[in-house]
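MODEL INPUT / OUTPUT PAIR
PAIR INDEX: 1
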Amino acid sequence: MKVIVKKYILTIFFLCITSLVVVILSGCTGKPIPGDVQAFDPFKALPQVTEYAGEGFILMGMVASFVKSDGFMDLKTNYNHRKTPEHCPQVQYFFYKPGSVTNNENKNENGHWVYCAINVRKPHWIEWRTITTTGPGAESVSRGGMGYNQGMEKFTRKITPDPDLIKQYALFENHTKTSVSPVSLSEIWAAAVKAGVPGNTVANISYNFWSRRISFKKSYNASIRGYKFDWNGKLIH
């Protein structure tokens, strides 16, 4: 019996050491989640998320999926049969940096804008891939091991803003003259319940900080209508 227990302990120890070595050799990506993973508050995390985006970026939108009626998110919960991170609760923050001529890689050149998306979801393993274009419509994919995503990851790229985006930015500049914070996720949930949405479910809630509009939709049934609210939580339609 003692021999079996000893072998079991050694096996567990070996697996732990192996996992640690894999993490060290593979490396980690992103940054740790700023807050309680099982009671995540997207608004409370905004200062850390904005700092991660970088200097000069302006928050334009936020989309939170699988939000509970208390306004919190359990990033570790799977709400359907798929176990991949993409089908678990997550928050997407969207930032823009209006064009300015600079040599800083985080800013735009030639009048373009820089788009920055920050995703917050449960930590997970990822597979390193290198995609190489080998010809018209042909690509080769090489795999280079595993890495560990700590939960908060950032993507940036240069864009040419379309007229609608420029129009929304003009709205944002006008709104800055009357700084008003939006209602919280729990308050939007309360307004949705008042409009007839059952409170014993989860929802996808999006905020547009430039046009000051909030969208609410149940996470599961796409056929059920969504709702639009203003910045104060008043139902629009």
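PAIR INDEX: 2
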Amino acid sequence: MDIEEEAQRRKQLLIEALLADIKTERRLGHLEYGTSMILLSLAILASVFAGFGGLLGFLGAQATGAIVLASNLPLIFAKAFKLEERAGWHYRKKNRLDDLKDQLIFQQPAIPTLEQIAQINKKKHGLNKVMQDEWDEKLVSNWESIDQRPKGIRHANDQTKHLQG
């Protein structure tokens, strides 16, 4: 096998890998976003049902209260697991992978060199690292995502410590 054939083979392998990753990220983005919208819709429907049930009198006070309380659970779940943010992350990664695929197909010679293919593959690995770092920093689920208090506010006693010599 000569170098041109090897370059074509590697180019095709990288295109196939990029296409598979793009498909996965698109599917995961749709799943996360769709789940978020379903949970939001459930919360809204439950609240409306409880409101009309209480106002029109076909639900008792306990049933209305229980439905109102339960209607917040889907919102808490969506917020705690950061579903919309995760969907956006998947769509951004998909778009960046798509950019790499386009670079390989349209911005390289018809038969790129092995070095050019390796460079795009290196960019793909760099993208994976950057995206994983973003996920680890911003999208790991924890209870802090539910806490809406402003960050960085200290107690009054703590604020004066840095002023003392």
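PAIR 2 NOTE: Residues 153-165 have pLDDT under 50 and may be disordered.
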